[in-house]
Structure formats: structure tokens, C-alpha cells
Amino acid sequence: MRKDRDYILEVSWGCPTDEYPLNGLFQFDQARALHNAGKDIVFLALDLRSFRKKRKWGYDRFVKENIQVCEYNFPCGPLPPAIKYAIQDFAFKKAIVHIEKEFGIPECIHVHCCQQAISVTEYSNKRHIPYVITEHITPLDEGDGIEKRKEKALKEAKEVIAVSKALARDIENKYGAKSVVVPNIADLSEFEYAPKNKAEGNTFEFLSAASVNYGKGFDVLIKAFAKVTRSVHLTIMGDGPEMPAIRKLADDLGVTDRISFTGSYVRRDFAEKLHASDVFVLPSRSETFGIVYIEALATGTPVIATRCGGPEDFVDETNGMLVPVDDVDALADAMRRMMQDICSDRETAKLEQSECSDADAEDVCKANDDIRNNNRFSEEFMKAAASNCRERFSAETVAGKIIEAFDR
């Protein structure tokens, strides 16, 4: 057994596995980053997913990437909030008995989302242990009783972290709790920067990728794409409940022959497709963060996003364009302007190459170089944008900011 109060207890709703790699992924990313920064971590997952997600019932413990992981699995799936959180309270109380016995009392608790925090507050107050909440999603209204517990948890936290400015505003407006903004960690190991170097005559390529649901705005994208010149192509990666309607819309608008639907994808496929694409576009109706935009920027691909929350923190005139939510005409205009800027840069590069082959054309080369340097989506600018993206969302940067929140 360790001595009391020498570790951070991370509390999440899940832990990623080979079978369910997205379950608790952002939370475990942060735990790994804190571990690599020298913090001793115990990771607790209170997993209340459906019984269809096969796993061991009750308490379990194992080591993942040198981090002690404790799970309390209580398969139940969708239930009324009062019942669901009663089960979560039970799961935490059972789990913390094992954790104290095996690891001692934690120094502090880092809880991911106020929905989990409501089960931690009683224990934290009893043991006089400070807790920090990182909020990843806009909390749903789950009835007066539960909402009062969330508000209490947020206001009593040592610090509240929101993963975007928009989410911080939502938390303050709904619960009156202020927060600091620290983004999620972006694992960009498969998203390397590479210059486009597209051959002359290649079709201009737009790429979009996400779960195909209403919130991602694929209907807006198809309508906007139909307004863009015919000499372009769009690839949509992903699948979901809206896919039949999206395919029908594309057919009704006569653009099916210019769209490729890949279905479900893995990160490596997405990275490869980004390298072959000119622009990433996703007109979401709401995003608390927006990891796919960051993955695109890391490869040097400019992006078109909406003013829907998360993307407003990192998409600007240096790396892309922002348009209003649900505005087909604005999106179509942004797509056209992006095409014009990028194609203009490539024409300048081609002219520069041919004219600068003459040793006497130094002045022409300099003039063309000035034009290229003023194009915000030139390879030089996008390489810088990719580098900035990697630094800003790296595990080291984010872990440092979280540790600052613990130490305040």
C-alpha cells in the first residue's frame, strides 16, 4: 500500500480498450499525460454502459500503459437520471473502498464532467480532498434534483476546466460557475505535416469526416457543395443514422457523381486522405471541441468550420475560415473563396518555377515570392499553422496547464 495522499485519482466514465477504443479516450489521454509529467495516477472508470458492451461486472483492476486502472462496471444502459445516478453513487462508493485499501487516500481528485463529479463530492468533503472538474461536453438538463447536484459540484470544485471558451460560457450561464479553458489533448502521431504538391490538372478535393448525424451538418454541406463549380470533388468519411438521407439529398441535387462516400474509417485512413485533399470542411451545428479540425490542421490542410463553439478557439484567418451555422450560402461562398486562394497560390508557384529558371529573372522571382507569402493558405503559412497546432494541443502543453489548475 502507498502512503496516503501521494497520487491523483482520475475519475472517468470509461477506459479505452481494443474493442472500444473511444470509451473514455480523452480522459485517459489526460491521465497518461499527467503520468508522463511525473504525477502518480490512479484511473477510475465508472462504466454504466449497456450490458451489450461486454465486460466484467463489478470491481476490476489492471495496469494500462504503466497506469493503475480501477473499474467499476455496472451494465445498465439508458435509465431515468435519478436511477442512473443512484447506481453511479453506489459504484463510486464500492470502488473507493477498494482504492483506499490498495492505494491509500488520494492527494486530489480529477473528475471528468460534472455528471461524474456529483458522485464524488460527498467523499471529497468527508476526506477533505480537493477536486478539479474537467468538463468535456455541454451538460444536459436532467431534472431539478440532478441539476442542483451538478451546480453544487461545480461551485465547490477547487477549479473547473472547460475544453473550449464556448463550453466555459455554457457552464457559467447554466450553473453560475466560472472555469478556465484548457483544450483536450490531440494525439497527432498519425497526422504528419506534408506539402500538397498536387499535379497540374488534378481535381480540387474537399474532404469531410465525422459521424453522419444531424449535429454534423452534412445536409448543409451537400446543399453548399451543389452551389460550387462542377470541377471539384467531395469525399465524406464516416457513417451514421443520417447517411440514407444524405445520399438521397445528394442524388436529388444531382451531385452524387462528384461525391465519394467511404463509410466508417480509422484514423490512419483519415490522415492519408487529408494528405490527398485540398480543404477539410465540416459545418457542425455544435462542437464543444472539434478534434477532426485539429487533425486536419496538423497535416497542413486548411479548414472550413462553423461558429458553433469549439472551432472558434483555434480556426482563424491564418488556417481556415469560419461561417455561421446552417448558412448554406455562406458555406458555399467560403468553399469558392478557399478554392480561389489555394489555386491562385499554386499558379503563382508554377509561374515562379518557370520564370526563375532564367538567371536574369531575379526581380520576377522576388515579386512572385511576395505574392505567395501574402497568401494565407500557402504551403509556408500552412506549415507554420501545423507546427502551432502540434505545440498547442500536445500532451506536454495540456498536462502543464492541468497541473497549474491543481496547484492554484
Write out key terms for the chains shown.
Rossmann fold, 2 domains, eight-stranded mixed β-sheet, alpha/beta, single chain, six-stranded parallel β-sheet, 408 residues
Strand order of the largest sheet: 3-4-2-1-5-6-7-8
- Separation, N- and C-terminal Cα atoms: 28 Å
CATH homologous superfamily title of the largest domain: Glycogen Phosphorylase B
Low-confidence spans: 351-361, 363-373
Would you state the CATH class of the largest domain?
A: Alpha Beta
Mean pLDDT equals 89
- Portion of residues in beta strands equals 15-25%
CATH topology term of the largest domain: Rossmann fold
Number of strands: 14
Shape: elongated
| Helical segment count | 14
Structural summary, described in words:
The chain starts with 7 loop residues before the first strand and ends with a helix. Helix content is 42%, strand content 17%. Mean pLDDT is 89; it is low at 351-361 and 363-373. The strands form two sheets. It has an eight-stranded mixed β-sheet with strand order 3-4-2-1-5-6-7-8, sandwiched between helices. The protein has helices spanning 25-36, 81-103, 114-117, 121-127, 144-156, 165-175, 218-225, 243-252, 267-275, 291-298, 328-355, 362-373, 379-392, 395-407, and strands at 8-12, 41-47, 58-64, 67-73, 108-112, 131-135, 159-162, 180-181, 204-209, 232-237, 259-263, 279-281, 303-306, 320-323. It folds into two domains: 8-185 and 396-407, 3-Layer(aba) Sandwich (Rossmann fold), CATH 3.40.50; 204-392, Rossmann fold. The protein is elongated and about 65 Å long. The protein has 408 residues and is α/β, with parallel strands linked by helices.
